[in-house]
Write a structure and sequence with these properties.
Helix content is 28%, strand content 22%. By secondary structure, it is of the alpha/beta class. The longest helix has 17 residues, at 123-139. The two termini are 31 Å apart.
């Protein structure tokens, strides 16, 4: 594509040049078993039927009392769903399944060490363990309805047990990703006013038993300096009955759960009848600036939404073995490892460690051995699996009917590998777009109804009505022109507010395009996601990344994801990351970092080939200032590429503290490479 198309865009728009891809259609075999096959679902969830259409989601749950009002808008935009209804999330995920399915596996916990046996926890056992721990939290820790608890734990069976015990009591849980630092944990303790921290002594990562207890000590110490005293630290043991940490327990504050729990064996706790609008949990999301925001999710609305998304979009049946390869410390894990699958009485897989440990075949062996038939992961993980073992999936006898991608836009080249190699040409793929704040999916295909299109998430899911605005708040209706994607209407999964900061909630997510700040009419309060997107003529949305990630080159706004996608067309490329570099004339220029597939040598010719591919795919305006071929990308322990670090290197700035990265040593290697040039 030549530069002429680039020049047609204005500064208020984003240049979009990805070629439209072919459609992929679900098989008749998949359609025959799917939960939703009637296209009329889109009409049922039209704006004409809003908000009563969402009663269909709520009716998937068991209620103590039905609601008085489907949607209360009196405190706009802090929407209250199913107001007056009474419900308990723990009851819906466990108790109601016992009559017919108590001996069915609820959780398959897979330790990282292959020599350790998999723990298969039935719904009956989950019921027993959740009740016992709930009794401990109530009677030993003194927790009651409305209290907040911070949970800083690795992937383990004890993590959903802890969450569901809190939900049973009406205690608001705040789960912190296990790989986060003590400081990050402390921030969340302070903001939520937690006086109880629940942790674990150790866990495995890449074959090493890591000391996790030390993070609890540091977090409590930092929180105390900020005025929040933690009076109890409850520590689960990786090996029950045995301490796996050298960090000492603090007398009168620290307690091994496994020891205290013995007093509560056989205990039963009646679930609290929670109002639908009462909070279920807080999930903190880090912005580019300011302190983390505590997204407050309500009980009834959130649970109804994730249950419906799990059933309609993930196509989960009670007979399915479902593996979401996320971490429960993120919203994906909350919605689609714990609450959604368990509400539907499915079997959910929880894996402790790294998907490529001890080798690239581990994920596929787990899938084979557990008969996993629904697989859910992020493009980051897909790219890593493709990089390390592109031919591994073919060696194993697993069969997925359905695969999900989540977390960021997936490049068409990676999508196609995922479909052909991982899905073996049998599985349908749903590419989902959503956020921590939204609770569940916003854009995706209903898998048995709409065809798949690599690079596009799809239309709004039933009940979600996206709209694209330009900078001035005008709707962009022309296909292929990008702007700020917003959602016109509220939905039950949307966060209720930012914990303790309603003003920030309104300012961040609604203020920009609000038509009337005094209005109680939901039509005046479109939700702004902060992402750039374009809508195709077929109604599918292509997400281009965060508005903040757009690079303005000589007045032309280029999405970083688009440049990365163009680089990934080159067969030798495994991963790509684009960062903006200041330029005195152009304003910004893109720097491109590349990690190659195993066995490929870095050469100047290959760097030129990648640069040429971007010019051919997008235009010369997108030509990288420099293509840096690096041994590996700096990544978080959850596998996310730290573009901030790369940006600091390119702009000769301070990379900050990198010791919490999974591979901090690579940062110095990249710095030296860039400085030498």
């Amino acid at each position: 594509m030549g530069d002429t198309n680039v020049l047609e865009t204005t500064e208020a728009q984003i240049a979009v040049h990805w070629q439209e891809e072919d459609y992929y259609y679900p098989s008749s075999k998949f359609i025959g078993q799917a939960n939703v096959t009637d296209p009329a679902i889109y009409e049922r969830f039209s704006l004409d039927n809003f908000p009563d259409c969402f009663i269909e989601f709520a009716e998937m749950l068991t209620w103590y009392k039905y609601w008085d009002e489907v949607l209360d808008t009196s405190d706009a935009p802090c929407w209250k769903w199913f107001k007056g209804g009474k419900i308990n999330a723990s009851y819906n995920c466990i108790d109601r399944h016992l009559k017919d399915n108590k001996n069915k596996t609820a959780i398959h916990f897979v330790p990282e060490l292959e020599e350790e046996r998999i723990d298969h926890i039935t719904y009956q056992e989950l019921y027993v363990r959740v009740n016992e721990f709930a009794a401990l939290l109530r009677d030993f820790a003194g927790l009651k309805r409305g209290d907040r608890v911070t949970i800083h734990m690795p992937m383990s069976a004890e993590l959903p047990i802890t969450m569901l015990a809190c939900a049973r009591l009406g205690v608001i849980h705040s789960v912190v990703f296990g790989g986060f630092s003590a400081s990050a944990c402390a921030d969340r303790i302070v903001d939520s006013n937690s006086r109880v921290l629940i942790s674990m002594d150790a866990y495995y990562r890449s074959g090493k038993l890591l000391n996790h207890k030390i993070n609890a000590d540091e977090a409590v110490e930092i929180a105390a300096k900020d005025g929040q005293v933690v009076d109890k630290v409850l520590v689960w043991q990786r090996y029950p009955g045995k301490s796996s940490t050298e960090t000492p327990m603090v007398e009168g504050r620290d307690y091994f759960v496994n020891d205290v729990l013995k007093k509560y064996y056989g205990a039963r706790v009646e679930p609290e009848q929670m109002l639908a609008e009462e909070p279920l949990f807080l999930m903190y999301t880090s912005g580019t600036t300011g302190k983390p925001k505590g997204a407050q999710h309500g009980t009834g609305g959130y649970l109804a939404y994730v249950t419906a998304m799990s059933k309609y979009i993930q196509d989960i049946h009670p007979t399915d073995v479902y593996w979401c390869m996320a971490d429960i410390g993120w919203i994906t894990g909350h919605s689609f490892i714990v609450y959604g699958p368990l509400a539907l009485c499915a079997s959910t897989v929880i894996y402790e460690g790294v998907p490529t440990y001890p080798d690239a075949g581990r994920s596929w062996r787990i899938s084979q051995d557990l008969d996993v038939n629904i697989f859910h992961t992020a493009p980051t993980a897909i790219r890593a699996l493709r990089k390390i073992g592109p031919d591994e999936p073919a060696k194993y006898k697993y069969h997925f009917k359905h695969m999900t991608t989540v977390g960021e836009p997936i490049e068409p080249a990676v999508w196609k590998w995922y479909e052909s190699a991982v899905g073996k040409g049998e599985a349908i793929i749903v590419d989902t777009w959503w956020q921590t704040e939204t609770g569940g999916f916003l854009c995706s295909t209903v898998p048995a109804i709409k065809p798949m299109k690599p690079g596009s998430a799809g239309p709004g899911v039933p009940g979600i009505h996206p709209i694209i605005f330009d900078e001035d708040g005008n709707e962009i209706t022309k296909p292929g022109i990008a702007g700020n994607i917003c959602i016109q209407n509220p939905w039950p999964g949307l966060m209720q507010t930012i914990w303790g900061d309603r003003g920030r909630f309104v300012k961040t997510y609604f203020e920009r395009y609000c038509k009337n700040p005094e209005s109680k009419d939901w039509r005046d309060w479109p939700y702004i996601a902060g992402d750039a997107a374009t809508r195709s003529a077929d109604g599918y949305y292509r997400i281009l990344g965060r508005i903040d990630d757009v690079i303005n080159v000589s007045g032309h706004r280029l999405g970083t994801k688009e440049i990365e996608s163009a680089a990934l067309v080159v067969p030798e490329v495994a991963e790509a990351a684009v960062v903006p570099v200041a330029h005195e004339i152009k304003g910004k220029e893109p720097d491109l970092y590349i990690a190659l597939k195993p066995g490929i040598q870095a050469t100047d010719a290959l760097a030129q080939k990648i640069s040429d591919a971007i010019c051919n795919q997008i235009g010369k305006i997108a030509k990288p200032r420099k293509v840096w071929i690096v041994p590996d990308m700096p990544k978080t322990r959850s596998g996310k590429i730290m573009r901030r670090v790369l940006g600091a290197i390119s702009n000769k700035g301070d990379v900050g503290n990198v010791m919490t990265l999974a591979n901090p040593e690579v940062v110095e290697t990249i710095k030296q490479l860039v400085e030498k040039s």
